[in-house]
UniProtKB/TrEMBL annotation:
SUPFAM superfamilies: Acyl-CoA N-acyltransferases (Nat)
Membrane spanning residue stretches: none
Protein name as catalogued: GNAT family N-acetyltransferase
N-acetyltransferase domain sequence ranges: 15-154
Top-level taxonomic group: Bacteria
GO MF, any single term: acyltransferase activity, transferring groups other than amino-acyl groups
Organism: Peloplasma aerotolerans
Length: 154
């Protein structure tokens, strides 16, 4: 994680926090599908994200969503994985990037968090190059001097 990364804060009561129409199916992971999701994450992303996603997948009511093109997993997003009220990890298959899938997954998670009673969400450890995406899509703002929960990693 870059040393200049910051956590970002999202107000879940903004009008932009709504589900997004997308040609791809966005669904909450059902526990029996967890291994397939973990295979996807392990193939396309880091071991850290794999470990982090397990925390969201191994709940009675998983806090992870996937994007599918037919039956193929093309993206994922989790919340309440590393800490309560935290969004992430999230990723989209490189072939499918630029099609609004990341945006749809982010908003699906934020809407779910709002429905579960959260007033705010934290997007953890965001690198400056990604701030514009989160600012535009969710109205997120960097939290100056954020504590960065990820500094506890070994």
């Amino acid at each position: 994680m870059a040393s200049n990364s910051l956590d970002m804060l999202v107000d879940l009561y903004q009008p932009i926090i709504k589900e997004l129409d997308t040609p791809f199916e966005i669904v909450r992971v059902l526990s029996p599908s967890s291994d397939k999701v973990l295979d996807f994450i392990g193939t396309h992303f880091s071991k850290g994200w794999l470990s982090e996603a397990k925390a969201g997948l191994y709940k009675n009511h998983p806090t992870c969503f996937i994007a599918r093109d037919d039956s193929k997993i093309i993206g994922f997003a989790c919340y309440d994985a590393t800490a309560k009220a935290y969004f992430g990890p999230t990723g989209v298959d490189e072939v499918y990037r630029g099609k609004g899938i990341g945006k749809a997954l982010l908003l699906k998670c934020l809407v779910s968090m709002k429905e579960e009673g959260y007033g705010y969400a934290i997007i953890g450890g965001v690198e400056p190059k990604n701030w514009p995406f989160y600012e535009k899509v969710s109205g997120a703002v960097p939290i100056q001097n954020s504590k960065k929960i990820y500094q506890r990693m070994v």
